[in-house]
TrEMBL record:
The keyword DNA repair applies. This is DNA ligase. Residues 308-441 form the ATP-dependent DNA ligase family profile domain. DNA ligase that seals nicks in double-stranded DNA during DNA replication, DNA recombination and DNA repair. The keyword Cell division applies. InterPro entries: ATP-dep_DNA_ligase, DNA_ligae_ATP-dep_bac/arc, DNA_ligase_ATP-dep, DNA_ligase_ATP-dep_C, DNA_ligase_ATP-dep_cent, DNA_ligase_ATP-dep_CS, DNA_ligase_ATP-dep_N, DNA_ligase_N_sf. Pfam families: DNA_ligase_A_C, DNA_ligase_A_M, DNA_ligase_A_N. Keywords: ATP-binding, Cell cycle, Cell division, DNA damage, DNA recombination, DNA repair, DNA replication, Ligase, Magnesium, Metal-binding, Nucleotide-binding. It is an enzyme of class 6 (ligase). The gene is lig. ATP binds at residues 228, 235, 250, 280, 320, 395, 401. GO terms for molecular function: ATP binding; DNA binding; DNA ligase (ATP) activity; metal ion binding. Belongs to the ATP-dependent DNA ligase family. It comes from Pyrobaculum ferrireducens. It catalyses: ATP + (deoxyribonucleotide)n-3'-hydroxyl + 5'-phospho-(deoxyribonucleotide)m = (deoxyribonucleotide)n+m + AMP + diphosphate.
Length: 563
């Protein structure tokens, strides 16, 4: 493959080599420009029929039989009468640039009459194409070219064809991942140093390796690590400039349209004029602000649902890196410097936060932080070398993910005692927005906290809870309640409600079974939800006990976690 590419690149003129590279990749433009041909097989066949004079029904049948629109094109064009046009061979052969320009017009056709325009443009191409050319054009336009040439193979070809070091090409590609443009750059003999981090063009993101124990991770990172919550959402590379805010996905696609709320929040939170930031967009419960699993971001994927989703499924952006600020490329600076810079330019709000992080040098502390992170709704930690630069496009050992290799499933509901509450915001203002719940320990006759729950309550439930709890209000924590968490309001332990969660996890934030499984860590219900059942038939001493919590934790079904 490389040999073929070398000879092709050597033959190509600089002004067409970019187009050749895009064709090889099966695209017309780099991913963030979102240029799509939008040509279905049916439309392609209609264009072929128009160009060849062969009835569309015949071509449909041919396509059905061979399953390859390219083959249908080849046969149509070999038998064609080419109505209204000179016979093939009697006119100027097609040039790469011409084909490219017409296809770009096809991709950009939109609105009323777009279908007809696309058919006309394509049929004019087919009318001039040889049967072999038609075969590949047809496959390309319906997205079936599939040459299987990897980006790195193109880089190898370019390196050999133009005598440029492969490593330098790779570096340039990581900063500006547009292979067509890169090919043209080297074919024109321009120096690679000209290629710099650019606002509006996403860099290839740095990726993480994976290890499964804190001690291995610390050893690999040279003894100490910046440990950050590993948020479970969508990775976002955010480019802020005078022109506005653009958000790019992990795969370099422009996803700005899905997150108008993030755009607005970034504008308000970031004080720099220009910046490239990285973070994770996480769906949160609109009533409690608690993190939700990333599946809840699906509502942002359908264009017509975005406006409603912004209201019903709000997000928080957790920023974890900054690559560029006001003309200064920070990718060669150490992580610690970048994190400081990040806190300098970001004013945190309820929509934009800086990813929670700590520096550790002992595995036990990393583990405690890990369990805290998971119980808050994340996937674990990303541990990073404090001195590492931002390695674009690399999956090296300077970022190491620490995830669980299994996920558990909570097998039963639990009945927990309301011991505290948190003031509600927004729709819940004036009421309680979330409640601190505890399990009972008969051996000490005390209540130990298990979770903070805000989900599953209807408006009527919240009102009822508020009214029921008023007479039980205390100015301080009840002496029979053991809690590390500070509630806004405390109650006499009396009201029992039924709760279900995704699983029971270890957590240093709660006191239930503290130290029973690991030192310094208790048990918590992750993603807890009120089932709607008030257990007024139960006294607080009949609530789920800490021993039952431990039993439930041990008996949970463990489900293998996908890599
Ligand atoms: N604090 C953080 N620092 C870096 N990445 C984070 C952080 N929090 C969440 N992430 C996310 O974690 C991802 C890496 O881990 P994960 O294994 O979940 O993703 P993946 O897509 O399966 O793997 P990868 O991105 O490494 O190919 C990052 O791409 C990013 O989206």
């Amino acid at each position: 493959m490389v040999k073929l590419l070398i000879s092709l690149f050597k033959k190509a003129r600089p002004e067409e080599i970019d187009k050749i590279v895009y064709f090889i990749l099966g695209d017309l433009r780099p991913p963030w420009e979102g240029v799509e041909l939008g040509v279905a097989e049916k439309l392609c066949i209609r264009a072929l029929s128009k160009a060849s004079g062969v009835p569309a029904s015949e071509l449909e049948a041919l396509y059905k039989k061979t399953g390859d629109v390219g083959e249908a094109a080849r046969r149509a064009l070999s038998t064609s009468k080419r109505p209204g046009l000179l016979a093939f061979g009697s006119q100027k052969p097609l040039e790469v640039s011409e084909v490219y320009d017409v296809l770009l017009k096809v991709a950009r056709a939109s609105g009323e009459g777009a279908q007809d325009l696309k058919i006309n443009l394509l049929s004019s191409l087919f009318a001039r194409a040889s049967p072999e050319e038609g075969k590949y054009i047809a496959r390309f336009v319906v997205g079936r070219l599939r040459l299987g040439v990897a980006d790195m193979t193109i880089i190898e070809g370019l390196s050999e064809a133009f005598g440029v070091e492969k490593e330098s090409l790779e570096r340039a590609y990581h900063v500006y991942p547009d292979l067509g443009r890169l090919a043209r750059h080297v074919a024109e003999g321009r120096p690679l140093e000209e290629i710099k981090i650019t606002l509006g063009v996403p860099v290839l993101p740095m990726l993480a390796q994976r290890l499964s124990s804190a001690s291995e991770i610390l050893a690999k990172l040279g003894g100490s690590a910046v440990c950050e919550y590993k948020y479970d959402g969508e990775r976002a590379q955010i480019h802020l400039s005078k022109a506005g805010v653009k958000i790019f996905s992990r795969r370099l696609e422009d996803i700005t349209h899905a997150y108008p709320d993030v755009v607005k929040a970034v504008r308000e939170a970031v004080s720099a004029g220009e910046a490239i930031l990285e973070g994770e967009i996480v769906a949160v419960d609109p009533d409690t602000g608690d993190m939700l699993p990333f599946q809840e971001l699906m509502h942002r994927k359908r264009k017509h649902e975005v406006a409603a989703a912004v209201e019903m499924y709000p997000t928080v952006l957790y920023l974890f890196d900054v690559l560029y600020v006001d003309g200064e490329d920070l990718t060669e600076e150490p992580l610690i410097y970048r994190r400081v810079k990040l806190s300098e330019i970001v004013k945190e709000s309820d929509k934009v936060s800086i990813a929670k992080w700590r520096i550790f040098d002992d595995p036990d502390s990393v583990d405690v932080f890990f369990h805290e992170s998971v119980s808050m709704g994340t996937e674990g930690l990303i541990c990073k070398s404090p001195t590492s630069v931002y390695e674009m496009g690399a999956r090296g050992w300077n970022w190491i993910k620490y995830k669980r290799d299994y996920r558990s499933e909570m097998i039963d509901t639990v009945d927990l005692v309301v011991v505290g509450a948190f003031h509600g915001r927004g729709k819940r203002a004036g009421l309680y927005g979330a409640f601190l719940l505890a399990a009972y320990d008969p051996s000490t006759d005390m209540f130990y906290t298990v979770c903070k729950v805000g989900s599953g309550f209807t408006d009527a439930d919240l009102k009822k809870m508020y009214e029921t709890l008023q007479p039980l209000k205390l100015p301080h924590r009840h002496p029979r309640v053991v809690s590390k968490m500070e509630a806004d309001v405390w109650f006499v332990p009396q009201v029992v409600i039924e709760v279900i969660g995704a699983e029971i996890t270890l957590s240093p934030l709660h006191t239930c079974c503290l130290g029973a499984v690991r030192p310094g860590v208790g048990l918590a219900v992750r993603f807890p939800r009120f089932t709607g059942r008030y257990r007024s038939d139960k006294s607080p001493e009949q609530a789920t006990t800490v021993a039952e919590m431990l039993e439930l934790y041990k008996r949970q079904k463990k489900v293998a976690q996908p890599e």
